[in-house]
Amino acid sequence: MSFHLQTSELLRDRRNVELLSLLLDDPRLSISELARRVGMSAPAVRERVLRLEEAGVIRGYRLEVDPVALGYPVSAYVRVRPVPGQLPKIAELARALPQVVECHRVTGEDCFVLKVYLPSIDQLDQVLDQFLVYGQTTTSIVQSTPVQLRGLPLPGSQEA
């Protein structure tokens, strides 16, 4: 069975979607608590969660830590337009810099969009200078975040 068909089949099952919804709300729920909430046995729920993980629907459980609490109050998006022949160097540098928490290859004149966190605005130059060796940068400093990172609507939900 192809990956897409397997995933699609798993998400047509109402119980699987219900389990995903519960885990999105609280990824720390135990298998026994999930089983209690959906009215199934713990082994059956464990098997379903495992199948969702193996199919790639659930890719991991993350701990969200406040960047400000870690000493990184400044966040910015950096767009990078590489000079010819330097495209692979941008991705390599982004992977190597701990300040870069996201790197996306995108369409358009700018080939990359990076999200960076910094302890202070005066440290932005140190990060940008490393990318300027390989291309032109355009930076947008985040002022506020009216919509925090959130999950996508699940199949069958009213938002889908």
List keywords for this structure.
single chain; 160 residues; alpha+beta; 4-stranded antiparallel β-sheet; 6 helices
Task: Estimate the global geometry from the Cα principal axes.
Answer: elongated
- Strand composition percent: 15-25%
In terms of per-residue confidence, which ranges show pLDDT below 50 for 5 or more consecutive residues? none
Our count of helices gives: 6
Query: Care to count the β-strands?
Result: 4
Describe the strand arrangement of the main beta sheet, using strand numbers.
Answer: 2-3-1-4
- Biggest β-sheet: count, sense, barrel? 4 strands, antiparallel
Distance between the termini: 25 Å
Range of helix content: 25-40%
Average predicted local confidence, pLDDT: 92
CA radius of gyration: 20 Å
Order of helices and strands: HHHHEHEEHE
By helix and strand content, what is the structural category? alpha+beta
